[in-house]
Write a structure and sequence with these properties.
Elements lengths: L7 E5 L3 H12 L3 E5 L69 H14 L6 E2 L3 E7 L6 E7 L2 E7 L1 E4 L6 E2 L13 E4 L13 E5 L3 H11 L4 E5 L8 E2 L6 E4 L2 E4 L5 E3 L4 E2 L3 E4 L3 E2 L11 E3 L2 E3 L14 E3 L8 H17 L7 H17 L14 H11 L7 H15 L5 H4 L2 H17 L1
Parallel strand pairs: 1-2, 1-7, 2-3, 7-21, 9-17, 10-11, 10-17, 11-13
Antiparallel strand pairs: 4-5, 5-6, 8-18, 12-13, 14-15, 15-16, 19-20
Helix pairs in contact: 1-4, 4-6, 7-9
The structure holds flavin-adenine dinucleotide.
Length: 442
């Protein structure tokens, strides 16, 4: 294989990232095989009513461990306008009878099914084909892909591999001080499906991300009390006005000797359950490469979250960043990979990419950011999209989409569930017009 012209590409995973990666690779003329270990495409969006036998889900290799982390009632946290792909929008078309601006998970899954079919990607997907080991062969000799399917184990060689195995499956569970004193139940949101098991309980929800907010709200309808603990509550600590039984707390300080959950602000509660909504760990059990690690949830080294300098461009990762317009970010990353492989976009030298990664890490350290936030794009989320767009010769993110995303985040943090049904698209047009006017004045 020449450094920039792949002929065959394996994609690991047929979730949103794998599907759009396959489309972009096909568009660039590559021969694509998508390996998907489950029986369907759609990844996370294929709701699975089962949950892990271990409520914390700490061992992804445990018998019965499940991939999906969606709860039964889940509706998107972004409006459908932000959840499509270019040339294939979720906006303006109904896929599973749910036309709401913030649809339920079945609508998104049906959208991904239709995308796979209509883009022609479906014909390149092998279902029930689990990639067990990926390893580089000699220089220029491509990658060995060992996989297991219905007919047993097999090995094939590809020029390039794009890893799209998802990162919302293996729980990240913080170790609370004094956890050995805890006698109640605990679980991670990965295993939360419905609120009924929390009837009349006092529940401490750890984490104030989109899932934490949704789940706390849903549980509050049946629970006695819900306490949401987060380092981001700052001056909002106290009872939440719009709910009878929900409190915002600062971070959990410790579990006291008497088993109470004590918060940083000094209050303590006797709780039945601690529910961790604390995010996920990156996990690549099949990857057999040197000089590449997941260290405190930093995957790397990775040039702009996508290419490991040592193996670029034949190994790439699509879909690692979080806290952004996810599907747009994934699509732009996929397009960059496809173009680099076909020679229509260029990468710096291995040494320059490695230096760029080091510089990025150095800046994070200087700003006091923990390693585990390496792939969290906030607050510079739009810069990553703009940077990728520049690599493939496309315009930066539209102001309308940026405003819409930031408005959605603000809505989530109000804790008021009505935002999904009272969302006004016209407001976004007004905001955009205002921004354009300001630009003209400036
Ligand atoms: C609770 C929750 C709510 C969310 N809400 C939103 C939202 O509202 N809007 C939004 O844009 N995003 C949301 N997301 C983010 C969501 O993860 C992305 O939208 C997107 O689905 C990620 O796609 P992916 O392809 O990267 O991963 P996944 O969807 O996880 O797909 C990965 C695929 O890889 C397969 N796989 C894994 N390992 C192997 C292997 N070894 N061999 C073969 N196949 C393998 C899996 O079976 C799976 O099908 C949410 C996520 C969660 C968990």
């Amino acid at each position: 294989m020449s450094r920039t012209r792949a002929r065959t590409a394996a994609v690991v995973g047929a979730g949103a990232a794998g599907l759009v990666a396959a489309r972009e690779l096909l568009r660039e003329g590559h021969a694509v095989t998508v390996f998907e270990r489950s029986g369907r495409v759609g990844g996370t969006w294929a709701y699975d009513a089962r949950s892990d036998p271990d409520p914390l889900g700490l061992d992804p290799a445990a018998p019965g461990a499940v991939h999906g982390s969606l709860y039964a009632s889940l509706r998107t946290n972004l409006p459908r306008e932000l959840m499509g792909f270019s040339g294939f929008a979720l906006q303006g078309r109904v896929f599973a009878g749910d036309p709401r601006t913030f649809p339920g998970h079945r609508e998104v899954l049906a959208f991904l099914d239709a995308f796979a079919e209509e883009s022609g990607v479906a014909g390149h997907v092998r279902l029930r084909a689990e990639v067990r080991r990926l390893r580089p062969l000699g220089p220029g000799e491509g990658w060995s892909v060992e996989w297991r399917g219905d007919a047993g184990d097999a090995e094939e060689v590809f020029d390039a591999v794009v890893v799209c195995n998802g990162h919302c499956t293996v729980p990240l569970v913080p170790k609370l001080r004094g956890i050995e004193n805890w006698r109640g139940n605990h679980m991670h949101s990965h295993n939360y499906r419905t609120p009924e098991p929390f009837q009349d309980q006092v529940v401490v929800v750890v984490g104030l991300g989109a899932s934490g907010v949704d789940i706390a709200r849903e549980i509050s309808k049946v629970a006695k009390e819900v306490h949401i603990a987060s380092r981001y509550t700052q001056d909002r600590v106290g009872k939440v006005d719009i709910y009878q039984n929900v409190w915002l707390r600062s971070e959990v300080d410790c579990i006291q000797d008497d088993g109470k959950v004590c918060f940083m602000e000094g209050s303590a509660v006797t709780a039945d359950t601690i529910l961790y909504c604390t995010g996920y760990r990156y996990h690549f059990p099949f990857l057999d490469v040197d000089d590449f690690t997941v260290d405190d949830n930093r995957v790397g080294p990775l040039y702009n979250h996508v290419f490991p300098p040592k193996y670029a461009p034949s190994l790439s990762f699509v879909g690692l960043p979080s806290k952004s317009i996810v599907l747009q970010t994934i699509e732009m990353e996929a397009r960059w990979v496809a173009r680099v492989l076909s020679g229509r976009a260029e990468l710096p030298s291995e040494a320059d990419m490695a230096a760029a990664v080091q510089e990025h890490n150095r800046r994070m350290e200087a700003a006091g950011k923990p390693k585990r936030h390496t792939h969290v794009l906030m607050p510079g989320w739009a810069e990553h999209i703009d940077w990728l767009a520049a690599q493939v010769g496309e315009p930066p993110l539209e102001a309308r989409r940026r405003n819409m995303y930031e408005k959605a985040l603000r809505c989530i943090w109000t804790l008021d569930e009505r935002y999904r049904d009272t969302w006004d698209d016209d407001e976004d047009d007004d905001e955009q017009e205002e921004e354009e006017e300001n630009k003209c004045i400036a």
